[in-house]
Amino acid sequence: MEIRQLEFLKHLLPCKRRVYLDHNATTNVSRRVRRRMNQVLKHAYGNPSSLYASGRKSAEIVRAARKQVADAIHADAQEIVFTGCATEANNAVLKSLSNFFYPRRKKIVSLPVEHPSVIQTLEFLKTQGIAVEYCPVDPWGRARLDELEKMIDGETFLVCCMLANNEIGTIQDVGAVVRIAARHGALVLSDCVQALGKIPVDVHSLGVDYATFSAHKLYGPKGVGALYVKQGSPFASFIHGGHQESGMRAGTESLHNIAGFGVACRDVNELLSRARRIRALKNRLIERLRAVRADCVILSPEDDGLPNTISVTFPRANNAELLAVLDRHGIAVSAASACSAQEDTPSHVLKAIGLSDQSAKETIRISLGCGTSRRDIGYAANVFKDFFNGKTLAIGLIAPARLDEAMLFDRETYILDVRPQFLRKNFKSLPNAHELSFVAVEKYLAQLPRDRHILVSCQHGNLSYILAYYLKSKGFARVSSLRNGIGGWKKEHGDLYQRYAGQNVTVLKPSK
Ligand code: PLP
Prior knowledge:
This protein is α/β, with parallel strands linked by helices. The chain contains 18 helices and 18 strands. The protein has 3 domains: 15-21 and 275-388, Aspartate Aminotransferase, domain 1 (Alpha-Beta Complex); 31-270, Aspartate Aminotransferase, domain 2, CATH 3.40.640; 396-507, Rhodanese-like domain (Oxidized Rhodanese, domain 1, 3-Layer(aba) Sandwich). It has helices at residues 31-43, 53-72, 86-101, 116-126, 145-151, 174-183, 203-206, 255-266, 268-273, 275-292, 319-328, 348-352, 357-361, 374-388, 405-408, 462-473, 485-492, 494-500, and strands at residues 19-20, 80-83, 107-110, 131-134, 156-160, 187-191, 210-214, 225-229, 297-298, 309-313, 331-332, 363-367, 396-398, 413-417, 434-435, 453-457, 479-482, 506-507. Helix 4 links the parallel strand 3 (107-110) and strand 4 (131-134). Helix 2 (53-72) runs parallel beside helix 8 (255-266) and helix 3 (86-101) packs parallel to helix 4 (116-126). The two termini are 18 Å apart.
């Protein structure tokens, strides 16, 4: 094979520069946290419940970390329960309280902009007889307190109000919500996951009954969360087993994760001291984005929102294309929250603040972190600029969920399957696909239509991504890659796969 035939391979080379701007999805583990976790993994393997020396040593590690978490949020150590993640902590509060109050009281009032770990749990609880009402929010996502006051009644046992929103960075007046709830005898759960490390969090002065936290949002490890339960507030374990965590959460403690979480919390004041610098970088990026696209709409509150979060709509931009271009340039941002990124459905938060489906799909979230530099911001701004000035190669990324019958049988779409022969055994091709092996693509360029949308597919979406960029570099106007490949599509649309896959497939032959 001539080397010329492998020209597409240059589209495989990853960009050397990496700019991570998705800190609301997760953060890197800090050096101090890593060091502590390694120490614990190496030297402390005793079960914290065991009574002999190594067990006592592990119990002491848990105790110290609990104090560090408590100090970071101005709570008492006995008010902290370690969990597997914040999702678990939110589930624990909602399910435990529903059990405790039902059927005496049946209602929970929540904001519609809460994280899915709250919203989806509430939707489940509805099926168990709990009445759930969502309080309207203003265009910045802030609870309408007058409406909230009207919604909470004698039936209401809980109000859910997050402190900081993960998608748009809005900070709620949780203190005011607590005062309203208290007038009606309702408890308050505040999801503080995005707040800790970005803004001061003082659970005692907020007055909430329950608050939830996650280590991986503040440079700690994934797989450990914390639940604050105000002394005297009702709570019963929803994971049954041993007597760990004072009977509030059974299961042997994840010692190294808990120790890492402790160190991450010990460093919270240092994180807070960087907030001003991060806000200045955020404002700089917003300025640069506005200079490139004067019509962009910043959805995040600029002065009193989280210092690191920018949610921005670029009217008429295809955010899947934009995200692909940013990714190709080593820049990580997300379409909405990481939790819904796979679904390709408009974000519930953006819908709640009044965006149309279309505008929601033109919106991306950029979230800065401690390691973000001025150079990173300059670099990212330039990539945005080149994209909007048409100077970058841009392909579309089609989510498997979006590839429905309408798109499959759209006469405008030319489906290209670039899997090598041996991989075709695993999955049948998409209906109406044109098959050619990726290694030979250069020989077939003349046969591919330049006036149609070319949808490139492969097994899992990697080859097609590279090939789509290659075709784009060869002047094909509209090229997309099927994200997660035919495997992902089959998982999403098993019924369509059964009905249509493998039908009307053309094997391309080299032109004479
Ligand atoms: N709550 C909010 C606001 C979040 O942003 C997240 C994570 O994205 C969670 C809860 C869930 O945290 P975890 O990943 O620890 O389950």
